[in-house]
Amino acid sequence: MIDRLFNDANVPLLEKMVRFTQARERVLANDIVNLSTPNYTPQDLSQDKFQEILRHQVDTGTTGSAGTNGETDEALKATDANENILFHDRNNRSVEQLMSDHANNALMHNMMIELMRKQFAQIQEALKEHVS
Fold it and tell me: How many structural domains does the chain have?
């Protein structure tokens, strides 16, 4: 019964989103650390690819239980982010873009954590049988 409470609700989706934003934060932090490293190519995780995989899982009802990896691990692999101007030191950094990506990722992460917290609070209330 407890497994159904966690796996039939939105918890598996929220958990996957949190895992994705955590992985993306590590990649973005690495990019920020290497801003002035010659020949460094910034990397990123594809949000579009992750959302496509997640959308497919929701549509087919194969989101899996919380803690399972499944197809979403495919989206947790960093790829080169070659969309900026290449500088003389062969680094294609963009401080503004990195800071914007970092802020957006942090907001998404915090929102998913808050939604997960509310989901657990609802489950806790249901278990107490104090439905409001």
Answer: 1
Residue 12 to residue 101: CA distance in whole angstroms: 24
Q: How many CB atoms lie within 10 A of CB 117?
A: 11
Q: At what angle do helices 11-33 and 95-128 cross, to 10 degrees?
A: 150
Tell me what pLDDT residue 66 has.
46
Overall pTM surpassing 0.85 (yes/no): no
38: left (phi over 0), alpha (psi -120 to 50) or beta: beta
- pLDDT tens digits along 62-78: 766 544 455 566 666 77
3-state helix, strand, coil in the chain (%, to 5): 65, 5, 35
For 25, the domain range is: 2-128
Bridge partners (DSSP) listed for residue 80: 43
